[in-house]
Design goal:
Layout lengths: L1 H13 L3 H11 L4 E6 L14 E7 L3 H13 L4 E5 L12 E7 L8 H11 E12 L5 H17 L9 H7 L3 E9 L7 H4 E8 L8
Parallel strand pairs: 1-2, 1-4, 2-3, 4-5
Antiparallel strand pairs: 5-7, 6-7
Helix pairs in contact: 1-3
């Protein structure tokens, strides 16, 4: 009941808050052409898509998330097509899309390296993955708290991790990180383990073949 029904509704509210919107706008800026979005959720990015996007291929396992996102999709001039349930196994051809988007998703995917490998595979050479994620803080005190709280976080938040080093994971997948900014979501200090952000862009090298 919690993970299948209540958690998607809670995330729709929490991650749709006004304080998150500006970070989302930063994440989608510059996207164009065909885009695969993993962890589409309830479509919170849809109203922010740049006009140069031609099609979005959405990957989302939650039927509740899809239902919550239906209105946002109908209101958008950019077509959104669901193409699968699992970012770890994209049902898409090699080098078939121009860009990729992940917001608050890499924290939860069980095999994050496999998911990033799939994004690398389906992106055309020179294509970019735009990401907005929470993860391991640079500040040692906060990082230690993240490690301590991580097991509980996984249990109550559908497998979400507090302490993944997002930039390192993106780089290890073969992407060249051209933009990276770390920031904090606004909130009380007690929430710092949850509020450290990675906003960035990773590019698939032009010389890259399939990994």
């Amino acid at each position: 009941m919690w993970e299948d029904h209540l958690l998607p509704r809670s995330l729709n509210v929490i991650l749709g808050a006004k304080g998150v919107r500006g970070h989302r706008e930063d994440a989608v800026a510059g996207l164009q052409g065909s885009v695969v979005e993993i962890g589409f959720g309830s479509g919170l990015n849809v109203p922010l898509y740049p006009a140069k996007i031609t099609t979005v291929y959405a990957v989302e396992p939650s039927s509740v998330g899809r239902k919550l996102g239906a209105g946002r999709i109908r209101a958008s001039s950019i077509p959104v097509e669901y193409v699968g349930l699992d970012g770890q196994e994209l049902q898409m051809a090699d080098e078939s899309v121009d860009a990729a988007l992940s917001t608050f998703t890499l924290c939860t995917i069980p095999d994050v390296a496999r998911a990033l490998g799939e994004l690398f595979r389906v992106l055309r050479p020179g294509g970019q993955v735009h990401f907005l994620e929470h993860g391991l803080a640079a500040d040692p005190d906060t990082a230690n708290r993240q490690h301590r709280f991580n097991r509980l976080q996984q249990r109550v938040a559908g497998g979400c991790n507090l302490d993944r080093p997002i930039d390192r994971l993106v780089g290890e997948a073969g992407f060249e990180i051209s933009v990276l900014k770390n920031d904090w979501l606004k909130g009380p200090k007690v929430l710092k383990p949850w509020n450290y952000l990675y906003k960035g862009v990773g590019t698939k090298p032009m010389r890259a073949g399939r990994q």
